[in-house]
Design brief:
Rossmann fold, four-stranded mixed beta sheet, 236 residues, 2 domains, Dihydrodipicolinate Reductase, domain 2, single chain
Length: 236
């Protein structure tokens, strides 16, 4: 039996829990935020995979606790910890562990980012098209701009105006536009609920369990590549 632990009992953690159960995994061990501020490794069980669905400021301590608990497969679903990436990667490599990381665990968002890549390449070759990004998330989301918006800017590879909205309860909306004097082109991604993030976390968990992975951090693109090419390979 596969033991899966989820750190975080919020909306994201619940969506991941539901996706795992629906796919036939045993009910995961869900550990909510500890009152002391740091998880006791003994309270995490002996997870074959640990999914961090908490918040950015907690990621470093959570990774340390997961590794101390013996977990060597991790999915880091929290955002807002980019400044600590070096420390996290060093800890994971030292422990010979493998972790999937993503600014957004949505499979649709992964495809959307590839459309952004293609649009940036096409329109970057033309004069007069200025890119811009608008992102809208629930009022309580802390990081601004979102991890997905930062990834979009990185892929655009140029100076970009980013507008961030924090209001209501939206799970996430991202708009990438290219504006010229005579026309505007826009790519638009809207998450209606968090089930899409649960599906992505499920794909990451299954990818880690399928075979041993090299130690270190693995981008979510590796999982997406596997999903996109597997049907083609099966019919070849």
């Amino acid at each position: 039996m596969t033991n899966i632990t989820i750190l975080g009992g919020g909306r994201l953690g619940r969506a991941i829990e539901a996706a795992l159960i629906e796919a036939g995994h045993p009910p995961p061990h869900v550990v909510r935020r500890p009152e002391a501020g740091r998880h006791d490794p003994a309270a995490l069980g002996e997870p074959d995979v640990l999914v961090d669905a908490s918040s950015g400021p907690a990621v470093v301590a959570n990774v340390e606790a997961a590794l101390a608990a013996g977990s060597r497969r991790l999915v880091l679903a929290a955002t807002g910890w980019e400044a600590e990436r070096g420390a996290v990667e060093q800890a994971i490599r030292t422990a010979a562990a493998a972790a999937v990381v993503a600014p957004n665990l949505s499979l649709g968002a992964a495809a959307f980012l590839r459309l952004v890549d293609r649009a940036a390449a096409l329109l970057g070759a033309l004069d007069g098209f200025d890119p811009y990004v608008v992102e809208w998330h629930r009022r309580g989301k802390r990081d601004r701009p979102s991890g997905t918006a930062r990834e979009i800017v990185r892929r655009l590879g140029t100076e970009v105006e980013v507008a961030s909205v924090r209001a209501g309860s939206s799970p996430g909306m991202h708009l990438v536009g290219f504006d010229s004097p005579g026309e505007t082109i826009e790519l638009h991604l809207t998450a209606r609920d968090r089930s899409t993030y649960g599906a992505g976390a499920l794909a990451a968990v299954d990818w880690l369990l399928r075979e041993p992975r090299r130690p270190g951090l693995h981008p979510f693109d590796a999982i997406v590549d596997d999903l996109f090419t597997r049907p083609l390979a099966a019919t070849a």
